[in-house]
Protein backbone atom coordinates (compact mmCIF):
# COMPACT_ATOMS: atom_id res chain seq x y z
CA UNK A 1 0.00 0.00 0.00
CA UNK A 2 1.21 3.53 -0.76
CA UNK A 3 2.51 5.31 2.37
CA UNK A 4 0.67 8.32 3.73
CA UNK A 5 1.79 11.76 2.51
CA UNK A 6 4.91 13.34 4.04
CA UNK A 7 4.41 15.35 7.23
CA UNK A 8 6.01 18.55 5.88
CA UNK A 9 3.77 20.51 3.50
CA UNK A 10 4.66 20.27 -0.18
CA UNK A 11 5.81 23.28 -2.19
CA UNK A 12 3.14 23.11 -4.87
CA UNK A 13 2.94 22.83 -7.74
CA UNK A 14 6.25 21.04 -8.17
CA UNK A 15 8.45 21.79 -11.20
CA UNK A 16 7.25 18.86 -13.34
CA UNK A 17 3.62 19.63 -12.58
CA UNK A 18 4.12 23.30 -13.40
CA UNK A 19 5.73 22.48 -16.76
CA UNK A 20 3.03 20.01 -17.80
CA UNK A 21 0.18 22.20 -16.55
CA UNK A 22 1.37 25.23 -18.53
CA UNK A 23 1.89 23.15 -21.69
CA UNK A 24 -1.67 21.86 -21.39
CA UNK A 25 -3.12 25.29 -20.61
CA UNK A 26 -1.83 26.58 -23.95
CA UNK A 27 -4.30 24.36 -25.86
CA UNK A 28 -6.97 23.01 -23.55
CA UNK A 29 -10.27 24.84 -23.59
CA UNK A 30 -11.24 26.57 -20.36
CA UNK A 31 -14.09 25.10 -18.35
CA UNK A 32 -12.51 21.96 -16.89
CA UNK A 33 -13.34 21.15 -13.24
CA UNK A 34 -12.15 23.93 -10.97
CA UNK A 35 -10.32 21.50 -8.69
CA UNK A 36 -7.86 20.81 -11.52
CA UNK A 37 -7.26 24.47 -12.31
CA UNK A 38 -6.95 25.50 -8.67
CA UNK A 39 -4.50 22.71 -7.85
CA UNK A 40 -2.36 23.15 -10.96
CA UNK A 41 -0.70 19.78 -10.48
CA UNK A 42 -0.40 16.88 -12.93
CA UNK A 43 -1.16 13.43 -11.56
CA UNK A 44 1.01 10.52 -12.54
CA UNK A 45 -0.57 7.46 -10.98
CA UNK A 46 -2.84 6.23 -8.23
CA UNK A 47 -3.20 3.30 -5.90
CA UNK A 48 -6.25 2.65 -3.73
CA UNK A 49 -7.32 5.96 -2.22
CA UNK A 50 -4.03 7.71 -2.98
CA UNK A 51 -2.75 9.68 -5.94
CA UNK A 52 0.86 10.55 -6.78
CA UNK A 53 1.75 13.58 -8.88
CA UNK A 54 4.52 13.81 -11.46
CA UNK A 55 6.89 15.28 -8.84
CA UNK A 56 6.35 12.28 -6.56
CA UNK A 57 4.05 14.02 -4.03
CA UNK A 58 1.49 11.63 -2.55
CA UNK A 59 -2.10 12.62 -1.72
CA UNK A 60 -5.03 10.93 0.00
CA UNK A 61 -8.00 11.45 -2.28
CA UNK A 62 -11.25 12.54 -0.58
CA UNK A 63 -12.85 13.44 -3.93
CA UNK A 64 -12.55 10.25 -6.04
CA UNK A 65 -13.23 12.10 -9.30
CA UNK A 66 -16.49 13.26 -7.67
CA UNK A 67 -17.68 9.82 -6.59
CA UNK A 68 -16.48 8.05 -9.74
CA UNK A 69 -13.46 6.14 -8.40
CA UNK A 70 -15.48 3.75 -6.24
CA UNK A 71 -12.68 1.14 -6.36
CA UNK A 72 -10.03 3.79 -5.86
CA UNK A 73 -7.27 4.16 -8.42
CA UNK A 74 -5.64 1.45 -10.53
CA UNK A 75 -7.35 -1.46 -8.82
CA UNK A 76 -5.30 -4.42 -10.13
CA UNK A 77 -8.28 -6.70 -10.87
CA UNK A 78 -10.18 -3.88 -12.56
CA UNK A 79 -7.12 -2.95 -14.65
CA UNK A 80 -6.64 -6.61 -15.63
CA UNK A 81 -10.30 -7.00 -16.66
CA UNK A 82 -10.09 -3.90 -18.85
CA UNK A 83 -6.80 -4.99 -20.42
CA UNK A 84 -8.15 -8.47 -21.14
CA UNK A 85 -11.30 -7.12 -22.79
CA UNK A 86 -9.37 -4.43 -24.71
CA UNK A 87 -7.22 -7.17 -26.22
CA UNK A 88 -10.31 -9.10 -27.36
CA UNK A 89 -13.05 -6.75 -28.49
CA UNK A 90 -13.97 -3.19 -27.59
CA UNK A 91 -16.50 -1.83 -30.07
CA UNK A 92 -19.99 -2.59 -31.27
CA UNK A 93 -23.44 -3.46 -30.04
CA UNK A 94 -23.58 -7.20 -30.75
CA UNK A 95 -24.27 -9.41 -27.78
CA UNK A 96 -21.10 -9.95 -25.78
CA UNK A 97 -20.29 -12.20 -22.85
CA UNK A 98 -19.52 -9.16 -20.71
CA UNK A 99 -22.80 -7.39 -21.50
CA UNK A 100 -24.82 -10.57 -20.91
CA UNK A 101 -23.22 -11.12 -17.51
CA UNK A 102 -23.61 -7.45 -16.65
CA UNK A 103 -27.36 -7.32 -17.30
CA UNK A 104 -27.80 -10.61 -15.40
CA UNK A 105 -25.84 -9.26 -12.44
CA UNK A 106 -27.74 -5.98 -12.41
CA UNK A 107 -31.06 -7.85 -12.51
CA UNK A 108 -30.02 -9.56 -9.25
CA UNK A 109 -29.10 -6.26 -7.61
CA UNK A 110 -31.72 -3.88 -8.93
CA UNK A 111 -34.27 -2.48 -6.47
CA UNK A 112 -38.01 -2.17 -7.25
CA UNK A 113 -37.90 -5.12 -9.65
CA UNK A 114 -36.20 -2.90 -12.23
CA UNK A 115 -34.49 -5.76 -13.99
CA UNK A 116 -34.20 -4.17 -17.45
CA UNK A 117 -31.00 -2.30 -18.16
CA UNK A 118 -30.07 -0.01 -21.03
CA UNK A 119 -26.49 1.27 -21.22
CA UNK A 120 -25.07 4.68 -22.09
CA UNK A 121 -21.78 6.51 -21.67
CA UNK A 122 -22.64 9.72 -19.81
CA UNK A 123 -24.81 10.57 -16.84
CA UNK A 124 -26.85 13.26 -18.57
CA UNK A 125 -27.44 10.86 -21.45
CA UNK A 126 -28.91 8.25 -19.09
CA UNK A 127 -31.14 10.84 -17.39
CA UNK A 128 -32.35 12.08 -20.78
CA UNK A 129 -33.14 8.46 -21.70
CA UNK A 130 -35.14 8.13 -18.47
CA UNK A 131 -37.16 11.21 -19.46
CA UNK A 132 -37.76 9.78 -22.94
CA UNK A 133 -38.92 6.54 -21.37
CA UNK A 134 -41.23 8.37 -18.95
CA UNK A 135 -42.76 10.29 -21.85
CA UNK A 136 -43.12 7.09 -23.88
CA UNK A 137 -44.92 5.27 -21.06
CA UNK A 138 -47.12 8.05 -19.67
CA UNK A 139 -47.90 9.98 -22.85
CA UNK A 140 -47.22 13.09 -20.73
CA UNK A 141 -44.42 15.62 -21.26
CA UNK A 142 -43.82 17.72 -18.14
CA UNK A 143 -41.00 17.10 -15.67
CA UNK A 144 -40.40 18.40 -12.18
CA UNK A 145 -37.11 18.23 -10.32
CA UNK A 146 -35.64 20.03 -7.32
CA UNK A 147 -33.75 23.11 -6.16
CA UNK A 148 -30.13 22.10 -5.67
CA UNK A 149 -30.53 19.05 -7.90
CA UNK A 150 -28.03 18.11 -10.61
CA UNK A 151 -28.68 15.74 -13.50
CA UNK A 152 -26.15 16.78 -16.17
CA UNK A 153 -25.58 19.67 -18.54
CA UNK A 154 -27.13 18.58 -21.85
CA UNK A 155 -30.10 20.39 -23.35
CA UNK A 156 -32.77 17.92 -22.27
CA UNK A 157 -31.87 18.16 -18.57
CA UNK A 158 -30.50 21.69 -18.27
CA UNK A 159 -33.88 22.97 -17.15
CA UNK A 160 -33.93 20.33 -14.41
CA UNK A 161 -30.82 21.76 -12.79
CA UNK A 162 -31.75 23.47 -9.54
CA UNK A 163 -28.96 26.06 -9.63
CA UNK A 164 -27.81 29.22 -11.42
CA UNK A 165 -25.68 27.10 -13.76
CA UNK A 166 -28.28 27.51 -16.51
CA UNK A 167 -28.05 31.31 -16.56
CA UNK A 168 -27.14 32.47 -20.03
CA UNK A 169 -28.00 29.12 -21.59
CA UNK A 170 -31.70 29.54 -22.30
CA UNK A 171 -34.24 28.95 -23.60
CA UNK A 172 -34.81 25.74 -21.64
CA UNK A 173 -36.93 22.76 -22.65
CA UNK A 174 -40.58 23.74 -22.20
CA UNK A 175 -42.39 21.82 -19.49
CA UNK A 176 -39.58 21.76 -16.93
CA UNK A 177 -40.35 22.78 -13.34
CA UNK A 178 -38.36 23.03 -10.11
CA UNK A 179 -39.52 22.75 -6.54
CA UNK A 180 -37.67 23.09 -3.19
CA UNK A 181 -35.75 20.10 -1.78
CA UNK A 182 -36.25 19.48 1.95
CA UNK A 183 -32.83 20.49 3.27
CA UNK A 184 -32.98 20.47 7.06
CA UNK A 185 -29.93 22.73 7.50
CA UNK A 186 -30.58 25.50 4.98
CA UNK A 187 -34.33 25.17 5.29
CA UNK A 188 -36.42 26.50 2.37
CA UNK A 189 -39.90 28.04 2.42
CA UNK A 190 -39.41 29.59 5.90
CA UNK A 191 -40.12 26.14 7.32
CA UNK A 192 -38.38 24.47 10.26
CA UNK A 193 -36.32 21.27 10.09
CA UNK A 194 -39.37 19.40 11.40
CA UNK A 195 -41.91 20.96 9.06
CA UNK A 196 -39.80 21.15 5.91
CA UNK A 197 -40.95 17.84 4.48
CA UNK A 198 -44.65 18.75 4.65
CA UNK A 199 -43.91 22.26 3.41
CA UNK A 200 -42.00 20.99 0.36
CA UNK A 201 -44.65 18.43 -0.55
CA UNK A 202 -47.45 21.01 -0.20
CA UNK A 203 -45.48 23.46 -2.35
CA UNK A 204 -44.84 20.79 -4.97
CA UNK A 205 -48.55 19.89 -5.12
CA UNK A 206 -49.48 23.56 -5.57
CA UNK A 207 -46.83 24.07 -8.22
CA UNK A 208 -48.06 21.09 -10.20
CA UNK A 209 -51.66 22.24 -9.90
CA UNK A 210 -51.02 25.86 -10.90
CA UNK A 211 -47.95 25.94 -13.16
CA UNK A 212 -48.24 22.77 -15.26
CA UNK A 213 -50.80 21.76 -17.87
CA UNK A 214 -51.61 18.60 -15.88
CA UNK A 215 -49.38 16.37 -18.02
CA UNK A 216 -46.65 15.42 -15.61
CA UNK A 217 -44.43 12.71 -17.10
CA UNK A 218 -41.88 12.44 -14.29
CA UNK A 219 -40.63 13.52 -10.92
CA UNK A 220 -36.84 13.41 -11.17
CA UNK A 221 -34.99 13.28 -7.85
CA UNK A 222 -31.68 12.43 -6.22
CA UNK A 223 -32.16 10.31 -3.06
CA UNK A 224 -29.41 12.45 -1.49
CA UNK A 225 -28.35 15.57 -3.39
CA UNK A 226 -24.69 15.15 -4.31
CA UNK A 227 -23.67 18.21 -6.30
CA UNK A 228 -26.02 20.31 -4.17
CA UNK A 229 -23.79 19.55 -1.18
CA UNK A 230 -24.49 15.97 0.00
CA UNK A 231 -27.89 17.02 1.33
CA UNK A 232 -29.90 14.31 3.08
CA UNK A 233 -33.68 14.80 2.96
CA UNK A 234 -35.91 13.68 5.85
CA UNK A 235 -37.12 10.10 5.78
CA UNK A 236 -40.48 9.83 4.09
CA UNK A 237 -39.56 12.20 1.26
CA UNK A 238 -39.25 9.55 -1.45
CA UNK A 239 -42.48 7.72 -0.49
CA UNK A 240 -44.32 11.07 -0.46
CA UNK A 241 -42.98 11.76 -3.96
CA UNK A 242 -44.24 8.32 -5.00
CA UNK A 243 -47.74 9.30 -3.89
CA UNK A 244 -47.57 12.58 -5.81
CA UNK A 245 -46.30 10.77 -8.92
CA UNK A 246 -49.14 8.24 -8.68
CA UNK A 247 -51.74 10.99 -8.36
CA UNK A 248 -50.43 12.55 -11.57
CA UNK A 249 -49.94 9.36 -13.57
CA UNK A 250 -46.22 10.18 -13.64
CA UNK A 251 -42.93 8.29 -13.32
CA UNK A 252 -40.76 8.51 -10.25
CA UNK A 253 -37.19 8.60 -11.58
CA UNK A 254 -34.53 8.18 -8.91
CA UNK A 255 -31.16 9.46 -10.08
CA UNK A 256 -28.60 7.23 -8.32
CA UNK A 257 -25.65 8.48 -10.36
CA UNK A 258 -23.80 9.59 -7.21
CA UNK A 259 -25.56 7.54 -4.52
CA UNK A 260 -25.51 4.13 -6.20
CA UNK A 261 -23.11 1.23 -5.66
CA UNK A 262 -22.33 1.73 -2.00
CA UNK A 263 -21.54 5.42 -1.84
CA UNK A 264 -24.12 5.98 0.92
CA UNK A 265 -23.25 2.81 2.86
CA UNK A 266 -26.07 0.98 1.09
CA UNK A 267 -25.99 -0.50 -2.41
CA UNK A 268 -28.51 2.13 -3.58
CA UNK A 269 -29.36 5.46 -1.99
CA UNK A 270 -33.10 4.83 -2.11
CA UNK A 271 -32.75 1.88 0.28
CA UNK A 272 -32.47 4.46 3.08
CA UNK A 273 -36.04 5.62 2.43
CA UNK A 274 -37.52 2.64 0.58
CA UNK A 275 -39.71 3.47 -2.36
CA UNK A 276 -40.79 1.87 -5.62
CA UNK A 277 -39.12 3.73 -8.45
CA UNK A 278 -40.21 3.46 -12.09
CA UNK A 279 -36.72 4.14 -13.35
CA UNK A 280 -33.28 4.44 -11.78
CA UNK A 281 -30.31 6.08 -13.44
CA UNK A 282 -26.83 4.79 -12.59
CA UNK A 283 -23.30 5.88 -13.42
CA UNK A 284 -20.11 7.10 -11.75
CA UNK A 285 -19.25 4.28 -9.28
CA UNK A 286 -21.06 1.83 -11.59
CA UNK A 287 -18.14 1.89 -14.04
CA UNK A 288 -15.53 2.95 -11.44
CA UNK A 289 -13.84 5.24 -13.95
CA UNK A 290 -14.88 3.84 -17.30
CA UNK A 291 -17.55 6.12 -18.84
CA UNK A 292 -20.51 3.78 -18.61
CA UNK A 293 -23.96 4.68 -17.27
CA UNK A 294 -27.33 3.02 -17.33
CA UNK A 295 -31.07 3.20 -16.98
CA UNK A 296 -32.89 0.54 -14.99
CA UNK A 297 -36.55 -0.02 -15.61
CA UNK A 298 -39.16 -2.75 -15.46
CA UNK A 299 -40.39 -5.42 -17.87
CA UNK A 300 -43.72 -3.62 -17.94
CA UNK A 301 -42.29 -0.24 -18.97
CA UNK A 302 -39.29 -1.10 -21.13
CA UNK A 303 -41.33 -1.89 -24.22
CA UNK A 304 -42.98 1.55 -24.51
CA UNK A 305 -42.43 3.34 -27.79
CA UNK A 306 -40.79 5.39 -29.17
CA UNK A 307 -38.23 4.55 -26.45
CA UNK A 308 -38.19 0.86 -27.37
CA UNK A 309 -38.19 1.20 -31.17
CA UNK A 310 -35.13 -0.32 -32.87
CA UNK A 311 -32.20 2.05 -32.11
CA UNK A 312 -34.60 4.11 -29.99
CA UNK A 313 -32.27 4.10 -27.02
CA UNK A 314 -28.92 3.10 -28.48
CA UNK A 315 -25.74 5.16 -28.67
CA UNK A 316 -22.28 4.79 -30.22
CA UNK A 317 -20.53 3.59 -27.07
CA UNK A 318 -23.39 2.47 -24.82
CA UNK A 319 -22.72 -0.99 -23.43
CA UNK A 320 -19.89 -1.79 -25.82
CA UNK A 321 -17.83 -4.83 -24.76
CA UNK A 322 -15.19 -2.70 -23.01
CA UNK A 323 -17.76 -0.64 -21.10
CA UNK A 324 -19.65 -3.76 -20.08
CA UNK A 325 -16.46 -5.50 -18.92
CA UNK A 326 -15.53 -2.46 -16.84
CA UNK A 327 -18.91 -2.23 -15.12
CA UNK A 328 -19.03 -5.98 -14.56
CA UNK A 329 -15.56 -5.99 -12.98
CA UNK A 330 -16.46 -2.97 -10.83
CA UNK A 331 -19.59 -4.62 -9.45
CA UNK A 332 -17.86 -7.94 -8.80
CA UNK A 333 -14.97 -6.29 -6.97
CA UNK A 334 -17.39 -4.09 -5.04
CA UNK A 335 -19.32 -7.13 -3.79
CA UNK A 336 -16.35 -9.42 -3.22
CA UNK A 337 -14.39 -6.82 -1.26
CA UNK A 338 -17.38 -5.73 0.84
CA UNK A 339 -17.09 -2.10 -0.27
CA UNK A 340 -20.67 -1.17 0.65
CA UNK A 341 -19.93 -2.18 4.24
CA UNK A 342 -16.55 -0.43 4.16
CA UNK A 343 -18.29 2.72 2.96
CA UNK A 344 -20.71 2.55 5.89
CA UNK A 345 -17.94 1.98 8.45
CA UNK A 346 -15.46 4.49 7.06
CA UNK A 347 -18.19 7.09 6.65
CA UNK A 348 -19.13 6.72 10.31
CA UNK A 349 -15.48 7.04 11.29
CA UNK A 350 -15.06 10.17 9.18
CA UNK A 351 -18.14 11.82 10.68
CA UNK A 352 -17.04 10.84 14.20
CA UNK A 353 -13.75 12.59 13.50
CA UNK A 354 -15.46 15.68 12.11
CA UNK A 355 -18.29 16.11 14.65
CA UNK A 356 -16.10 17.75 17.32
CA UNK A 357 -15.28 20.40 14.68
CA UNK A 358 -18.74 21.86 15.26
CA UNK A 359 -17.66 22.91 18.78
CA UNK A 360 -14.03 23.62 18.04
CA UNK A 361 -14.43 26.02 15.07
CA UNK A 362 -16.89 28.90 14.79
CA UNK A 363 -16.92 28.56 11.00
CA UNK A 364 -18.12 24.93 10.92
CA UNK A 365 -21.89 25.00 10.71
CA UNK A 366 -22.95 21.42 10.10
CA UNK A 367 -21.57 17.89 9.70
CA UNK A 368 -23.78 15.20 8.23
CA UNK A 369 -23.72 12.33 5.77
CA UNK A 370 -24.51 8.76 4.88
CA UNK A 371 -21.68 6.32 4.17
CA UNK A 372 -18.87 8.04 2.32
CA UNK A 373 -21.06 10.91 1.16
CA UNK A 374 -20.23 13.49 3.79
CA UNK A 375 -21.45 17.07 4.16
CA UNK A 376 -19.39 19.74 5.91
CA UNK A 377 -20.89 23.23 5.83
CA UNK A 378 -18.51 26.15 6.35
CA UNK A 379 -20.16 29.38 7.48
CA UNK A 380 -19.09 32.93 8.18
CA UNK A 381 -21.71 33.15 10.93
CA UNK A 382 -23.21 30.18 12.72
CA UNK A 383 -26.44 32.00 13.58
CA UNK A 384 -27.30 33.18 10.06
CA UNK A 385 -25.61 30.16 8.40
CA UNK A 386 -24.22 32.53 5.76
CA UNK A 387 -21.64 30.62 3.67
CA UNK A 388 -17.93 31.15 4.39
CA UNK A 389 -16.28 33.47 1.87
CA UNK A 390 -14.77 31.92 -1.23
CA UNK A 391 -11.22 33.21 -0.58
CA UNK A 392 -11.02 31.47 2.82
CA UNK A 393 -12.46 28.28 1.32
CA UNK A 394 -9.84 28.30 -1.42
CA UNK A 395 -7.13 28.76 1.20
CA UNK A 396 -8.46 25.75 3.08
CA UNK A 397 -8.45 23.72 -0.13
CA UNK A 398 -4.86 24.68 -1.00
CA UNK A 399 -3.51 24.20 2.54
CA UNK A 400 -5.09 20.72 2.66
CA UNK A 401 -3.65 19.98 -0.77
CA UNK A 402 -0.13 21.03 0.34
CA UNK A 403 -0.48 18.61 3.26
CA UNK A 404 -1.46 15.77 0.94
CA UNK A 405 -5.25 15.79 1.27
CA UNK A 406 -7.47 16.32 -1.77
CA UNK A 407 -10.87 17.80 -0.86
CA UNK A 408 -13.61 19.87 -2.43
CA UNK A 409 -13.12 22.55 0.24
CA UNK A 410 -12.80 25.28 -2.42
CA UNK A 411 -16.44 26.19 -1.75
CA UNK A 412 -18.38 26.52 1.52
CA UNK A 413 -20.53 23.39 1.05
CA UNK A 414 -17.69 20.90 1.34
CA UNK A 415 -18.38 17.41 0.04
CA UNK A 416 -16.07 14.65 1.23
CA UNK A 417 -16.31 11.49 -0.89
CA UNK A 418 -13.27 9.23 -0.59
CA UNK A 419 -13.09 6.07 -2.72
CA UNK A 420 -14.98 3.18 -1.14
CA UNK A 421 -11.68 1.33 -0.59
CA UNK A 422 -10.39 4.03 1.78
CA UNK A 423 -8.75 2.70 4.96
CA UNK A 424 -9.08 3.71 8.63
CA UNK A 425 -5.56 5.10 8.54
CA UNK A 426 -6.40 7.29 5.53
CA UNK A 427 -9.63 8.53 7.12
CA UNK A 428 -7.75 9.46 10.31
CA UNK A 429 -5.07 11.17 8.24
CA UNK A 430 -7.73 13.24 6.46
CA UNK A 431 -9.33 14.32 9.74
CA UNK A 432 -5.93 15.30 11.17
CA UNK A 433 -5.07 17.41 8.12
CA UNK A 434 -8.44 19.15 8.24
CA UNK A 435 -7.90 19.81 11.97
CA UNK A 436 -4.45 21.30 11.38
CA UNK A 437 -5.69 23.58 8.60
CA UNK A 438 -8.88 24.59 10.44
CA UNK A 439 -6.82 25.40 13.59
CA UNK A 440 -4.79 27.89 11.55
CA UNK A 441 -7.93 29.45 10.01
CA UNK A 442 -9.54 29.71 13.47
CA UNK A 443 -6.43 31.43 14.88
CA UNK A 444 -6.52 34.00 12.10
CA UNK A 445 -10.22 34.65 12.61
CA UNK A 446 -9.68 35.10 16.36
CA UNK A 447 -6.72 37.47 15.80
CA UNK A 448 -8.71 39.52 13.28
CA UNK A 449 -11.39 40.32 15.89
C1 LIG B 1 -27.03 12.84 -9.78
C2 LIG B 1 -26.34 13.10 -11.08
N1 LIG B 1 -26.99 12.86 -12.23
C3 LIG B 1 -26.43 13.09 -13.41
C4 LIG B 1 -25.14 13.57 -13.51
C5 LIG B 1 -24.56 13.86 -14.85
O1 LIG B 1 -23.52 12.98 -15.14
P1 LIG B 1 -22.48 13.32 -16.32
O2 LIG B 1 -21.58 14.37 -15.79
O3 LIG B 1 -21.79 12.00 -16.53
O4 LIG B 1 -23.28 13.76 -17.48
C6 LIG B 1 -24.41 13.82 -12.36
C7 LIG B 1 -23.04 14.33 -12.42
O5 LIG B 1 -22.45 14.76 -11.47
C8 LIG B 1 -25.02 13.59 -11.10
O6 LIG B 1 -24.39 13.83 -9.97
Give a topology summary.
Layout: H1 15-27, H2 34-39, E1 43-47, E2 50-53, E3 58-61, H3 64-67, H4 76-86, H5 97-109, E4 116-120, H6 123-138, E5 142-146, H7 155-158, E6 176-179, H8 196-211, E7 216-221, H9 237-247, E8 251-255, E9 279-282, E10 293-297, H10 321-336, H11 339-354, H12 357-360, E11 364-370, E12 373-381, E13 386-387, H13 390-402, E14 405-406, E15 413-416, H14 424-448
Parallel strand pairs: 3-14, 5-6, 5-7, 7-8, 8-9
Antiparallel strand pairs: 1-2, 2-3, 4-10, 9-10, 11-12, 12-13, 12-15
Helix pairs in contact: 4-10, 5-10, 11-14, 13-14
Describe it.
- The chain is of the alpha/beta class.
- It folds into two domains: 15-61 and 338-448, Alpha-Beta Complex (Aspartate Aminotransferase, domain 1), CATH 3.90.1150; 76-336, Aspartate Aminotransferase, domain 2 (3-Layer(aba) Sandwich).
- It is 37% helix and 16% strand.
- It has helices spanning 15-27, 34-39, 64-67, 76-86, 97-109, 123-138, 155-158, 196-211, 237-247, 321-336, 339-354, 357-360, 390-402, 424-448; strands spanning 43-47, 50-53, 58-61, 116-120, 142-146, 176-179, 216-221, 251-255, 279-282, 293-297, 364-370, 373-381, 386-387, 405-406, 413-416.
- Helix 7 links the parallel strand 5 and strand 6.
- The chain starts with 14 loop residues before the first helix and ends with a helix.
- The model has no long low-confidence stretch (mean pLDDT 97).
- Pyridoxal-5'-phosphate binds at residues 122-124, 127, 150-152, 222, 226-227, 255, 257-258, 283.
